[in-house]
Amino acid sequence: MDNIAAAYNFADIIAEFNTGGGEFDINVFGSGHINDTFIIRSKARKGVDFLLQKINHFVFKDIDSLMNNMVYVTNHLKEKIAKIGHPEKEVLTLIKCNNGKYYYQDAQENYWRMTNFLHNTKSYDLVTNVKQAQQGGVAFGRFQNLLCDLHPDLLVSTIPDFLNIEKRLNDFNKAIKNNSVQRSASVMEEVGFLLSRADSMNEILQLGRAGVLPLRITHNDTKFNNILLDQADEIQCVIDLDTVMPGYVAYDFGDAIRSIINTAPEDEKNLDAIQLNIPLFEGFAKGYLSQTISFLTDAELKSLMMGVLLLPYMQAVRFLTDYLEGDVYYKTRFAEHNLQRTRAQIQLLKMLEMNKEKLSSIIQNEWLNLKNTLKTGTQMIAG
Ligand SMILES: Nc1ncnc2c1ncn2[C@@H]1O[C@H](COP(=O)(O)OP(=O)(O)O)[C@@H](O)[C@H]1O
Ligand SMILES: [Mg+2]
């Protein structure tokens, strides 16, 4: 057993869940950064395997509400997918505990949950080709579509103000002023760049408050490794539902694009290496719109490009805030890591701003193509 796994009494923890009993092998699994994930393999030949997770209680304060969200969302998805597909493969299946809930709190105040393990699936940290990008778009677009008739008020914000740029900028301004580790003077250029865009980056929030953009249920962590693909690289299941809560569709679109479109890692030092991979953008947009065209409003369509700019911006603000506060939130591997990350996000944002017209017209054209295809299809049926 891995060292980290040896720290817990798994026999007792597993016994709290309705697994059907039997003996299991336990190993650390996956490359997630938030929760501790373990695969629980049945020793019986035809036994079912499970995925056990210790939920990160430092990041998520209200585990009861978080798990309630997850139950609402997975039940709703299963109900809808039952009519068109395979809910047991395409939606996470939560395993109930002896206490009647879907999580178990041990004596050390660790919170555990279990789902069925989905076999023959893959998750990738990086998108490497257009087909994958398109499948990513299909996955998160379909996810939003299937949940667009579930009322957002049913869900609790598992991290309040997670993507609230106003709150992030308040924290940023406080960090500049407090200057707790004497770094403010050395980053005036980056601070100036970010503050000069503070007003324009508030647009989604303002349109939301004015009722122009509807609040919906969104995933809010649309990294590519939060979907499982099948052996043919087709989307099978959206995972990592901890941050599913009320939000604006552009947040999911923008956050997915932030990692997919960047040709370099998030903390690239050589700024010239940060370029835009336009075909991957196109692939994601095409997949996403194919699933959302039926419900997205015109205002939401327009907001997608705002999300593409907002999410790297917000990430830069958060990295620089952490740098100014002495690197207390993000794990860093060297002294200036957060500053390097900030500069890389700023560079990405500059590239996106330079290519804004081009990217907007890709979204617009994909939208028109889809509308035309749908129209032709309807005419053929009518004819
Ligand atoms: N039900 C599942 N079946 C198979 N693999 C899974 C399942 N759930 C999660 N995984 C794998 O475990 C990894 C971590 O899970 P995730 O819920 O994303 O945790 P984190 O919040 O730490 O990112 C995923 O990237 C994926 O590879
Ligand atoms: Mg994850």
Q: Overall mean pLDDT score?
A: 95
Number of domains: 2
Query: Which class of secondary structure composition applies to the elements?
Result: alpha+beta
Bound molecules: adenosine-5'-diphosphate, magnesium ion
**Which of globular, elongated, flat, extended, rod-shaped describes the shape?**
globular
Indicate the radius of gyration in whole angstroms. 22 Å
CATH architecture of the largest domain: Alpha-Beta Complex
Number of strands: 9
Total DSSP helices? 12
Q: List the secondary-structure elements in sequence, H or E.
A: HEEEHHEEHHHHEEEEHHHHH
* Strand residues, percent: 5-15%
CATH topology annotation of the largest domain = Aminoglycoside 3'-phosphotransferase, Chain: A, domain 2
Taking pLDDT < 50 over at least 5 consecutive residues as the criterion, the unreliable ranges are none
